[in-house]
Amino acid sequence: MDEFITTNDVHLYYGEKEALKGINLSFPAKGINALIGPSGCGKSTYLRILNRMNDLIPQATMTGSVKINGVDIYSPKTDTVDLRKKVGMVFQQPNPFPFSIYENVTYGLRIAGIKDKQVLDERVERSLKQAAVWDEVKDDLHKSALSLSGGQQQRVCIARVLAVQPDVILLDEPTSALDPVSSGLIEDMLLTIRDRYTIIIVTHNLQQASRISDRTAFFLNGELIEAGKTKSVFLNPQHQETDDYISGRFG
Amino acid sequence: MKTKLQNKIALNIIRIIAALVVVILLFLLGDILISGVPHISWHFLTSASQSFESGGGIGIQLFNSVYLLLLTLIISFPISLGAGIFLSEYAPKNLFTSIVRMAIEVLSSLPSVVVGLFGFLLFVVQFQMGFSILSGAIALTFFNLPLLTRNIEESLRAVPNLQREAGMSLGLSKWRTVTRVILPEALPGIITGVVLGAGRVFGEAAALIYTAGQSATNIDFGNWNPFNATSPLNLMRPAETLAVHIWKINSEGVMPDASAVSAGASAVLIIVVLLFNIFARIVGNSLYRKLTATK
């Protein structure tokens, strides 16, 4: 397997509490990877390590190494601003900026210095199309993003991330606050972009993980129990805990 | 049955208290407006005041109040914006931050007359700035700074953390996230706070008596060179404001129509402050609607 993201012996502490207990896990370039496990198992914490969002929590300390495309993202030379352009993130709650749809999608680009209206227009259209929300919003791009429904907001947030053309997209339970129809749209959309991006999705929804992901990693109590091809994890789990979790005996 | 009765009694007591507040306010407003409004005329609003004869106006005092307010905002807004951003977005939990916070608390609880006397000793006497608009504006800045800082800090804090994460995760630096995402979102709250604070500053008298002075020198509204002594824009001229004027008429006014002038001036002051309040609401609401486009 050609590894695009590798994490070695990653420990993360919130103060005294050890939230991740030595995670060794890697992901290939492109494709969808699902992180599953019960609440508080550390999967979201792990996800936030990959774009250094945990840096924002003052009492969190981390050890171990995280390499993306061969570059140690925790080396002192790493510019977190650059890192987060390459590793985009979508959150559980849709969090569009309270500006227009157009401004939301172009925000990252304009901050990066792109001013050419034509380039921006093009990028907005492409990103919104990729995020499967173009047809619903193309007639009022200058309406506030907050006036959209939750599902549309979330897809605009995904378009906002796609617009900066990252290598990796992290999704932290992106559909758990949405209705089934919107969730389905987002799942379909992820499947259409899986060939272009390395996607890592945290989900509580086991069906979702089995439907869309190529690979699955199962976390429990801050430890990685099992990781591999989604099919084999779901059909032929190697560990008793994995079996118990995916068959609904706990969690 | 007993708890139901208790609930009813408590609710009614609270209702009476709330109604009492409204009644007191209406009574005050009504009294001031009824006795003052009949004296307000174009002549009253534009002409200079008289010391010994009747028929004086409040033109210069009104201009002084507005000018002083603008100067105060020009000085205090940038400082409190910086302090507010620091406290809400950057300040680590350490000794320095708690000292800053405490300083702001103490500053906001200083009686305005003390601020005025301090300004008198330091600026008017020590720095030889004399009774001047500038001394007054600096004293009012001390008075306004803590309120404004706290308002800005709270408006920024009210922006959900999700927005900060959204900004950072898009590759915006912290500073850009604050200035391009958080600040615009907090703007309606900040503007409302500024305008409400402006209302308080506009009505302030005690801090100005010893700093901006109690005399309204004649100014020439045809002369806008700020370095000329009779120019309205001159920073170093003494400038009695409307609130100070009211205080002065009532304590030592000898003009025959003192009570009428005082009543008229009070009514003008109240009306202006009310306008500030209404304006703050309208601007805050419409800015919020515009930014979020939730029509």
UniProtKB/TrEMBL annotation, chain A:
SMART domains recorded: AAA (SM00382)
GO MF entry, a single one: phosphate transmembrane transporter activity
InterPro entries (alphabetical): AAA+_ATPase, ABC_transporter-like_ATP-bd, ABC_transporter-like_CS, P-loop_NTPase, PstB-like
Single GO biological process annotation from the record: phosphate ion transmembrane transport
A GO term from the CC aspect: membrane
Pfam families associated with the record: ABC_tran
CDD domains referenced in this protein's UniProt entry, alphabetically: ABC_PstB_phosphate_transporter (cd03260)
Database matches in Gene3D superfamilies: P-loop containing nucleotide triphosphate hydrolases
UniProt keyword terms in alphabetical order: ATP-binding, Nucleotide-binding, Phosphate transport, Transport
PROSITE patterns for this protein: ABC_TRANSPORTER_1 (PS00211), ABC_TRANSPORTER_2 (PS50893)
Source superkingdom: Bacteria
Record domain ABC transporter: where: 5-246
Protein name (Swiss-Prot/TrEMBL): Phosphate ABC transporter ATP-binding protein
Automatic annotation (TrEMBL), chain B:
Protein keywords: Cell membrane, Membrane, Transmembrane, Transmembrane helix, Transport
InterPro entries reported in the protein's UniProt record: MetI-like, MetI-like_sf, Phosphate_PstA
GO biological process: phosphate ion transmembrane transport
Transmembrane segments: 12-34, 66-87, 99-123, 129-148, 181-202, 260-280
Compartment(s) where it occurs, according to its Swiss-Prot or TrEMBL record: Cell membrane
Family matches, as Gene3D superfamilies: MetI-like (1.10.3720.10)
Residues of the ABC transmembrane type-1 domain: 62-280
UniProt keyword annotation of Transmembrane helix present: yes
Membrane topology annotation: Multi-pass membrane protein
GO molecular function: phosphate transmembrane transporter activity
Pfam families for the chain: BPD_transp_1 (PF00528)
GO CC annotations, alphabetized: plasma membrane
Family: Belongs to the binding-protein-dependent transport system permease family. CysTW subfamily.
Protein name: Phosphate transport system permease protein PstA
